[in-house]
Amino acid sequence: MTPSRPRAAVNVDIDGLYLYDRIHGHAGGSGNAAGFDPAAHDPTVWTRGIPRFLDAFAQAGIQATFFVVAQDLAQADVRAVLKDCVAAGHEIGSHSFTHPYNLSRLAPDAIGEELVRARHTLQDATGQAVLGFRAPGYVLSDALRTAIADVGHTWDSSRFPCPPYQLAKATFIQAYKLLGRPSGSLIEPVGVWVGPRKPYRDRLPDGRTLVELPVGVLPGMRVPFIGTSVLMWGEAGRRVLAPVVARSDWMNFECHAIDLTDHAGDGIPDRLKTQPDQRVPLAKKGPLFQKVLSDLARTHDVRTLGAWAATL
Ligand SMILES: [Zn+2]
After folding, report:
1. d(CA 99, ligand 1 centre) in Å
2. CA of 3 relative to ligand 1 center, distance in Å
3. The domain spanning residue 147 has which CATH number?
4. Ligand 1 (single-atom ion) residues, CB below 5 Å
5. Number of structural domains in the chain
6. Can you give the pTM of this predicted structure?
7. Cβ contact 78:46 at 8 Å
């Protein structure tokens, strides 16, 4: 038998620009506030970002998972890109219907409605069973984990056991509060910051289990291994960390569709320049992502999250 290579998965959260407005508390751009029309949002992350991910995955020979906010399918342009993802053999997961950052804290009925609508919409659009879920802002609760299983999902990939990320998020939520610009994000309990970093069967309050595939952190210091951090480290950081990544079992490389957009070239509004991904031009980001993906494909057994879930 040949020795098995360490496990890896690559996935993309397709968060529309309206969701970044909500994170950063920009008045008037708030995602699902009264009057928000899913048929009229700016689809740049779909129409510009996702085709670049599809090219990058094809070049690296990787099958990935795309997490979709189902209300985005109200637009024909978005539906066309989703079809391209499916045609290329990638997996589609649910990222809820409207991406409420407080989904975990909604009443059980409201949580159930978000999840059922999303799953049905995505299954109708793709003709495939949608088995996986990722929570908005990575935040789970007992009620949400139970609902994920009730709806028929068999796996979840929302846990982000990363103290540096969680600390940074808690800090900016507090800072925005002080500035009078409340953010839609939620702070997570410390138990999540230090939870398991490899896939496991998560026990639900009623005794059932749900496969959990945590978002990527490196062993030891638990440095995040996601698109945003790769962009911040740049090529020098990639080279320093490559040997650590190469040896690490379970690298769940989580990207966002905005990661492969170009702030100037794609005409993204200037108010979103606070996003780290927006300060790096595509001419730099594209080749960097391609290298990270090719490295992973060489050192790891890269499969979709659903394929890994089926092995647990
Ligand atoms: Zn999201």
Report:
1. 7
2. 36
3. 3.20.20.370
4. 13, 15
5. 1
6. 0.92
7. yes
